Amino acid sequence: MNRTMDVFFFIGSVFTYFAVMRAEQAAARDGIALRWRPFNLRAILKEQNNVPRNNPVKLAYSMRDAVRRAARHGLPFREPLPYPVDPGLRANRVASLAAAEDWCLPLARSLYTGWFRDSIPPHDPGLLSATLLQLGKVPDAILTQADAPSTHERLAAETDAARALGIFGAPTFVWGNEIFWGDDRLEDALAWAKAHPDG
Amino acid sequence: MNRTMDVFFFIGSVFTYFAVMRAEQAAARDGIALRWRPFNLRAILKEQNNVPRNNPVKLAYSMRDAVRRAARHGLPFREPLPYPVDPGLRANRVASLAAAEDWCLPLARSLYTGWFRDSIPPHDPGLLSATLLQLGKVPDAILTQADAPSTHERLAAETDAARALGIFGAPTFVWGNEIFWGDDRLEDALAWAKAHPDG
């Protein structure tokens, strides 16, 4: 019986903030473990001509919606939020390394806290290094590894996996063949998983 | 004190189904009246190059999400759903007339029930006529009036009002200057209205 739900996410997605901060606890209440899988959402958005900046009306709304939902979840949100972030995908590649081990969620939490609470974009070298130090890592070693071809390939492979699942946004929760897009579908995803324990 | 929440909607929007079927009762529990305002969402989507059919991956997901949410809300959803519908906007123009009087919500409920439960698109002449008869109207007279220039103009004026509010999708709930997009934001909208009674 499958008791692990995959969470495809992208450091740069605004609504991933809420999932990073609250999904683990919610899932644990249902006895479900989460596997955090960073992928290159930006590549998929470009393929689908679905780039948020191309629709400023919708983007402005999304930011306002995120501010209101942060308040509902009791999470800090300092405006204006730096956006977009991680242009070179380095933060996402560090997350890709972390996902191969067991420190992906604490990494994401630290980077998202820096981004939303302190207005420091997640690719900021100081934020990245401080976060890695807190996690007991050697920043230079990790950052060098993050820039290696094998890490680029890992992120690309996870992006392929996301595309194959029909994923087009983040966060996306996956249970068997069902995908649930958006932090606001976390409860739907958990309810589905409970009703369909064999995926 | 403003106790009326506007609901901008479009007969053709899949997620408007849920709002049409459940929002009135939810709002009434909070002592809030709803004003149903049909507009031409299709025109705004085209302006923003945000046409659902242009992203088949996202559209397929949205349909699946809607099927799952119908089940959660205990509402019928017969697959495959006719889509897109109301190419000539006649159903929306009839709704525009209805909104000028007091029969917009019952009209929308009947058309959406035909569409989702019985696979009859809302612009179907038989469904429109049967619905109008049920509502005590003379179908031929209403349909003639729906095709008159003044009704086209009324729908266009409401579309202008929607655009001015920053609306880009349906349903959208409006309270003061705050807009809440999607049936899944109904609870957020009502909570906001309760917390900000003066809009």
Strand percentage of chain A: 5-15%
How many E strands of chain A? 4
In terms of quaternary structure, the protein is homodimer
Which descriptor suits the 3D outline of chain A?
A: globular
Within the largest sheet of chain A, what's the order of strands? Answer: 2-1-3-4
Q: Give the SSE order of chain A as H and E letters.
A: EHEHHHHHHHEEH
What does this entry look like structurally?
Two copies of one chain form a homodimer. With 199 residues, the first copy, chain A, is of the alpha+beta class. The first copy, chain A, is 55% helix and 10% strand. A four-stranded mixed sheet of chain A has the order 2-1-3-4, with helices on both faces. In chain A, β1, α1 and β2 form a beta-alpha-beta unit. The longest helix of chain A is centred in the N-terminal third of the chain and has 18 residues. The N and C termini of chain A lie close together (8 Å). The model of chain A has no long low-confidence stretch (mean pLDDT 97). Chains A and B meet through α3, β4 and α9 of A and α3, β4 and α9 of B.
